Every structure is written in structure tokens, then in C-alpha cells.
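Checklist before submission:
- one chain only
- standard amino acids only
- sequence pasted in full

Submission:
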Amino acid sequence: MSPPDRKEAEVRRLVQQRTAEPVPADLAERALAEGARLLRRRRALGAALWTGVLAALLVLAVWALVLHPWAAPPPTTTPPAVGW
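Returned file contents:
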């Protein structure tokens, strides 16, 4: 048999003491309000991030349509004259 675990014994002692401080009566309501606030903040942040990503994609698409970066650059010299 294994010897008793020190942590387990300490937890048992704490549970058996029952001298914990009383829980506030409005704890559940405060926890619910805090959770709702965090959820609203997370949703707002997600919406802002998605809006930023979509705006960046829109800017990229407009830039690509206006400048045609895939096209070859215009020649900087004139072609040689043939027949001279």
C-alpha cells in the first residue's frame, strides 16, 4: 500500500474545517454580468478583426484591378529600327 499523499491530506483537512468565508448573495448575478460583458467584448473584437480583414482584401482587389501588377512593365527603350 502506498503512503498517504500530503496534498490529499491537506485538502481533506481544509474540507473538513468548514470555516470558509460566506459567499456574497449576489455572486451569481455579478458573475453572469461579467461573463456577458466579456462575451460582448469578444464578439466586438471578432467583428472588428473580420471587418479589418475584409477591408484589406477589398483594398488589395482594387489595387490589383487598377495597377495590373501581373502585366509586364512597359519597355524603357524603343525597339530597334528595322530596314535602315
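Reviewer check: The helical segments are 6-17, 27-67.
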